[in-house]
Amino acid sequence: MAPVTRSHLSVLRGFVALAAAVLYFSGAAAEARLLLTLDDFGAVGDGVANDTQAFLDAWTAACGSQEQAVLAVPAAKAYRIWPLQLTGPCKKKLKLLIAGTIVAPASPDEWAGRGWMKWLYIYGVDNLSVSGGGTIDGAGQEWWARSCKRKKTQPCNTVSPPRAVHFEECRGVSVQGVTLQNGQHFHLSFTRCTDVKANFLRVVAPADSPNTDGIHLNDTSRVEIMDNLISVGDDCVSMVGNCSDIRVSDISCGPGHGISIGSLGKNRTTDRVENVRVETCLLTNTTNGVRIKSWFENIVMKNVSSPIIIDQYYCDQPTPCANQTEAVEVRKVEFVDVRGTSATAQAINIACSDTVPCRELELKNVNLTLEGGGVPSASCYKAFGKAVATVVPASCLAKQDS
Predict the structure, then answer these.
(1) Which of 98, 102, 123, 151 could form a disulfide bond with 132, CB atoms 3.0-4.6 angstroms apart?
(2) Residues annotated as part of the active site
(3) Segment-wise mean pLDDT, segments of 10 residues, the chain, 402 residues
(4) Buried b (16+ CB within 10 A) or exposed e, 268-286
């Protein structure tokens, strides 16, 4: 190896000086950021003290900052937060960095005089990212115990519990890399939002916790839900209302009720759900697999009670529901590369409306067997479409309207 000469050192010093200058001017050109923590505003973080006002004050400062702000929930601490509304618009992009734990009050009585439907409610905020590897704990155990779905004797709670984390009228929202657990109701929900990412999440609640959907969409468009582990008491992913351009992929779901679109058309409303793609998902020990839906591809199911179901006679109340499916049209639904095992004898159940039958359905490369071995059955009513390639159990779709 050649010796290092004075000229080499001179060149090296020049290179280092140039690199430093580049770093300096790059740093000068980058927009400054403001770091705030809940502790800066008097939060205690012992899991007991009420840190709600500190959170609200920190949010107000971060949202109103002329610089891009990072609002941090410090690690190794737990912040007890009562129902809270975080509103926009904010002046700059904002990052909520949750490294510690945010936990709700344990008793539903704490919601007296407050908004029953909300815990952490974010309204009218654009370009917000939530990350940090921490935990959002809804402490929903007492809510579940009082629910009429679990408690069969009166008095029981007929009021809908609060949604744990709920975004409304937001754009450019990203929720990634956090744990949501023990939600009182839906864990993470979006209403009238656009350009949403919900990725790399862990969403968990007991299998018997009522209505604890993992991720719920309503009137929301351009959504990416990817690389999530969801184990809850209701739908892993659900969508209602007018949702469009939804991609759900690489999801581990179960236990739970699977991946669902609907219910739709309740009280004779007209809903439109379109361009939904669900692919590369593993569903294990779920009540349903994929329920109505749009395009489902490369789905693996293990011990699922209803692997493929379209149900226009869905009823979510103890007394019989009137048949009000006139507003719902199911068309161009494809189930492609669906395989696995069914926990019940009927693996495919497609029950459509007399007045608005299901049309242009497709089953392609479907292979479902019984959990203990054997071939399950398929049942269709007012369902029209085609089977392509191998379909097990044999397709029950009618070829054309009768």
Answers:
(1) 98
(2) 234, 257
(3) 44 34 37 89 98 98 97 98 97 97 95 85 98 98 90 76 97 98 98 98 96 96 98 94 93 92 64 84 85 69 88 68 58 89 94 87 94 94 94 92 50
(4) eeebebeebebbebebbbb
